[in-house]
Design a protein that fits this description.
Blueprint (H helix, E strand, L loop, with lengths): L7 H15 L2 H4 L5 E5 L2 E10 L5 E2 L2 E2 H14 L3 E13 L4 H18 L2 E10 L7 E11 L15 E4 L5 H11 L15 H10 L5 E3 L5 H13 L2 E5 L7 H10 L13 E4 L1 H12 L8 E7 L6 E4 L5 E3 L13
Parallel strand pairs: 5-6, 10-13
Antiparallel strand pairs: 1-2, 2-7, 3-4, 5-7, 8-11, 8-12, 9-11, 10-12, 13-14
Family: Belongs to the HypE family.
InterPro entries: HypE, PurM-like_C_dom, PurM-like_C_sf, PurM-like_N, PurM-like_N_sf
Pfam family, one: AIRS
Length: 329
């Protein structure tokens, strides 16, 4: 299970098993979506699978995740997503009403994200050999000329920005799965981020890195960027927006909010002289109203993320080994 958690074990599996088997330059970039040129057009192409349990939760369900997750991976390359594929793996005995509810959610989410599901596939596995519904989506989109967003472009002096409060998705899943109450309902933040990204690019194409901190949370995303760019990252722990309900749940369960999954947030590395206009553009968008500067990229301690704590000390924010919360996306 740890190999699917988005942490160190996932990275090990990718680098030592998949990359040698498939090895090519596009794959070697290890971005959320591959940036490709085809017939003169710049394309972003991504694929992802969804095995969340339960299938439905406050704020969404597996159908929303399947669309928004792939749309957001494309958006993290600066692309405008256009078309998706959608494959279902169904466990024998799953009610057709459940499958229909998931399909309707996919259709609604696709319309909200302004993408079209144009092809798909369905397979059925024996009872006991699945978890009701698994979904794989793939997507393509167009990248505008002059946009070059990838983790290798992080530079010392870049400002690190997060688009809103972190940890909501993982805690929403946990609250439903385990029947826990935290004084208020915690809803997933799942949402398509294309509009927010395009609003940021409209004020400057000089955005170096975008990443959606899903599996492994903010900590995994920042560690991946630091490793790809051979730079260090310094966070102000107090500046990271953590909702009270998330902080309470994490304190109760011994979790760190920085490692909890998100499905409608992004982290951006932006040159310092563009940071103010980018943050202003984010604040003007519904999905970026609570955007905050949380740190900076530095030349010191390359490939390491550290956080300045509220007590005035520092701590290393390492890549998680596996996953704190299984099957959250």
């Amino acid at each position: 299970m740890g190999h699917g958690g988005g942490g160190a074990l996932s990275a090990e599996l990718t680098r030592h098993l998949f990359l040698p088997a498939y090895g090519n330059q596009a794959l070697g970039e290890l971005t959320d979506s591959a940036a490709l040129t085809l017939g003169g057009a710049r394309l972003a192409f991504s694929t992802d699978s969804y095995v969340v349990r339960p299938l439905f939760f406050p704020g969404g369900g597996i159908g929303d995740l399947a669309v928004n997750g792939t749309v957001n991976d494309l958006a993290m390359s600066g692309a405008v997503p256009a078309y998706l594929s959608c494959a279902f793996i169904l466990e024998e005995g799953t009610e057709l009403a459940t499958v229909g509810r998931v399909a309707q959610a996919i259709g609604a989410a696709a319309r909200a994200a302004d993408v079209t599901v144009v092809t798909g596939d369905t397979k059925v596995v024996d009872s006991g050999h699945g978890d009701g519904v698994y979904i794989t989506t793939a997507g393509v989109g167009l990248i505008a000329d002059g946009v070059d967003i990838r983790p290798q472009r992080a530079r010392p002096g870049d400002v690190v920005i997060v688009s809103g409060p972190v940890g909501l998705h993982g805690i929403a899943i946990l609250s439903v799965r385990e029947g826990l109450a935290f004084g208020t309902e915690v809803a997933s933040d799942t949402a398509p981020l294309t509009g927010l990204v395009q609003a940021m690019l409209a004020v400057t194409p000089e955005i170096h890195v975008l990443r959606d901190p899903t599996r492994g949370g903010l900590a995994a995303a920042l560690n991946e960027i630091a490793a790809a760019s051979h730079t260090g990252v310094v966070l102000d722990e107090r500046a990271v927006p953590v909702p009270e309900a998330v902080a309470t749940a994490c304190a109760l369960l011994g979790l760190d909010p920085m490692y909890v999954a998100n499905e409608g947030r992004l982290v951006a590395f932006v040159p310092r002289h563009h940071a103010d206009v980018v943050v202003d553009a984010m604040h003007a968008h519904p999905l970026g109203r609570e955007a905050a500067v949380i740190g900076e990229c530095v030349a010191e301690h390359p490939e390491t993320v550290v956080a300045r704590t509220g007590l005035g000390g520092t701590r290393i924010v390492d890549l998680p080994l596996g996953e704190q919360l299984p099957r959250i996306c």
